[in-house]
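Key result, reporting period 2: structure in, sequence out.
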């Protein structure tokens, strides 16, 4: 009869407190959860309605610290335009970024043909499309698009309506610049 006593040397000993595994958060996973939006946010009609992720609600210094720690791991990571601008010292606060988004929403939300698209790239704040510029007389497959950016201090880029290769974004000089160019942008149909 085999009593299994020869197995006694192959069974690992119980762990003691000193050699317990140490778990450290995975920054990629933590950041992914920080920018994750609830499913209900996908029906947002304005950027303000989209602001439901941790990065929108947590203390700004905590958000910035996690962003910097996460960004240092693998290079560029998905993040709202305003957070990249704050991290680069180009924007003073998240609240300033929200004001930029809200002013664009106030301008475009009242104009016929403009629709807010909440399902932008991970972490981004959505964008606006001028729907009459898509599949109209001009035949463009992609409509004129207004989006926020951290590339320049006007915080607004426009992608003209197009078919085929994506054109370079056109930098817009803030809300006043957008307002002054709306006639030109809305002429493409």
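The corresponding designed sequence is given below.
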């Amino acid at each position: 009869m085999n009593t299994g006593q020869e197995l006694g040397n192959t069974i690992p000993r119980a762990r003691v407190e000193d050699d317990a595994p140490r778990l450290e958060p995975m920054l990629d996973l933590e950041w992914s959860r920080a920018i994750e939006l609830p499913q209900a946010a996908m029906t947002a009609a304005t950027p303000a309605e989209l602001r439901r992720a941790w990065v929108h609600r947590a203390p700004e210094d905590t958000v910035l610290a996690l962003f910097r720690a996460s960004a240092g791991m693998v290079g560029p990571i998905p993040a709202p335009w305003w957070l990249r601008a704050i991290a680069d010292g180009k924007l003073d606060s998240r609240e300033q970024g929200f004001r930029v988004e809200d002013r664009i929403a106030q301008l475009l939300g009242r104009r016929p043909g403009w629709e807010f698209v909440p399902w932008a790239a991970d972490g981004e704040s959505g964008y606006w499309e001028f729907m009459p510029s898509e599949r109209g007389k001009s035949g463009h497959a992609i409509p004129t698009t207004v989006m926020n950016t951290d590339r320049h201090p006007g915080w607004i880029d426009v992608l003209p309506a197009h078919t085929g290769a994506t054109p370079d974004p056109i930098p817009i000089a803030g809300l006043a610049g957008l307002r002054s160019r709306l006639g030109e942008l809305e002429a493409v149909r």
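The CA atoms of residues 64 and 87 lie 7 Å apart. The first strand starts at residue 114 and ends at 117. This case is discussed further under Risks and Mitigation.
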